[in-house]
Amino acid sequence: MTTLTSPHDLLAAVPFLIGYHPVNSLVVIALSDDAIGMAMRVDFPGEPAVLAAHLVHQKAEAAIIVAYLPEGSPCDDQTVAMQEAIKARGIDIKECIQVVGDRYRSTICPDISCCPLEGSQVPEISDSLIAAEQVALGKPLPFAGINQMRLSLSAEPRDLELIRATTQIADINYEDAGAILLQREGAYAVDRLVAQFMEKGICHDKELIALVLVRLLDLQVRDYAMGITTEQNEKALWAMWRWLLRIAPRGFVAPVATLFATMTYERGDGALAQRALERAFEDDGKYQMAKLLRRTFAAGWPAHSFTQMRNELHPKICAALFG
């Protein structure tokens, strides 16, 4: 992302960083070598100590605070508490902006000629260089709000043909010597689905989709699917898992949701990743990978750590599946 050189840039960047236009929110952005790291958002008033601890975990050298405050309520104390919690951990505050309605002001700029007490007009996101840059990179415009973001991952109407196709596929009997062949079948099916999606942007083969959904219930196949992401297929894979998440019948959602959540978190979109985990828990409240991801997301793990983990795990999974 272009270096943020003004409050206008910053206010345009925040919705792209968290995926939607926030309200009644406290947003903290980690900086290292002046590069933007992870953006963390909590409902206002938030927990300053918790957010400050996440900055430490991110190895942030500095931070930016953007507080989206409820109209008509004096909330300066909370942003001051956030600044103090961050400074107490040796992290510099580059900027602290309060947004109330359609007005914003910096709380650390002493010059009232550029930062008047009554605030300045919040700029239109569409007029910013940041928005043009992000759209050019293929990132969609932020959702209008968190509810719209949630709806973007909601289930589509039941596909009875797809449901019937899933019932025709045999479960894996792990006591049988042929179990590895069915796991291998699942990995090959994932590869075929990816190839079709990269070529056409969609797949109409219900039997192939059903085979992928059923075999993703196997942990080896799911972990194989997690490891096939490359720079060349990343955009297509992200779109494919999102599409599959919406059409997957009940009972087959959780594996797809965790695959999509992991990729989304790696892309820096923590809010959408959290919504994907919600879909996983709606489908299976005990799904272990979803529980693990919820803990790691909450701990503020750096996004690149998932890339590293995937790169280390994938050769082992391939060796187990294919010898």
- Average pLDDT works out at 85
The portion of residues assigned to helices is 40-55%
Q: Which regions have little confidence, pLDDT < 50, spanning 5+ residues?
A: none
Q: How many strand elements?
A: 6
The major sheet is characterized as: 6 strands, mixed
Number of structurally distinct domains = 2
Strand % is 5-15%
The strands making up the biggest β-sheet line up spatially as: 2-1-3-4-5-6
Query: What structural class is derived from the secondary structure elements?
Result: alpha+beta
Query: What is the N-to-C order of secondary-structure elements (H for helix, E for strand)?
Result: HEEHEHEEEHHHHHHHHHHH
- How many helices? 14
Please give the radius of gyration in angstroms.
22 Å
* C-alpha end-to-end distance: 42 Å
Outline type? elongated
Q: What do these coordinates show?
A:
The chain is of the alpha+beta class and 323 residues long. The protein has 2 domains: 7-145, Cytidine Deaminase, domain 2 (3-Layer(aba) Sandwich), CATH 3.40.140; 160-322, no CATH class. Helices cover 52% and strands 12% of the residues. It has a 6-stranded mixed beta sheet, sandwiched between helices. The protein is elongated. It starts with 6 loop residues before the first helix and ends with a helix. The mean pLDDT is 85.
Summarize the structure.
With 323 residues, the protein is an alpha+beta fold. It contains 14 helices and 6 strands.
